[in-house]
UniProtKB/TrEMBL annotation:
<dbReference type="GO" id="GO:0030170">
    <property type="term" value="F:pyridoxal phosphate binding"/>
</dbReference>
<comment type="similarity">
    <text>Belongs to the glycogen phosphorylase family.</text>
</comment>
<protein>
    <recommendedName>
        <fullName>Glycogen phosphorylase</fullName>
    </recommendedName>
</protein>
<dbReference type="GO" id="GO:0005980">
    <property type="term" value="P:glycogen catabolic process"/>
</dbReference>
<dbReference type="GO" id="GO:0008184">
    <property type="term" value="F:glycogen phosphorylase activity"/>
</dbReference>
<dbReference type="InterPro" id="IPR000811">
    <property type="entry name" value="Glyco_trans_35"/>
</dbReference>
<dbReference type="GO" id="GO:0005737">
    <property type="term" value="C:cytoplasm"/>
</dbReference>
């Protein structure tokens, strides 16, 4: 039951975040570490 409630909260927050990005179109910063390329 706890995992289900945590999952529901995460999905809700993820949806809110997606809506925020669609409305405001903020700049994004991408970071790629060289450790993963070696």
């Amino acid at each position: 039951a706890l995992a289900h409630s945590v999952r529901d909260r995460l999905i809700e927050r993820w949806h809110d975040t997606q809506q925020y990005f669609k409305r405001n179109d903020p700049k994004r910063v991408y970071f790629l570490s060289l450790e993963f390329l070696m």
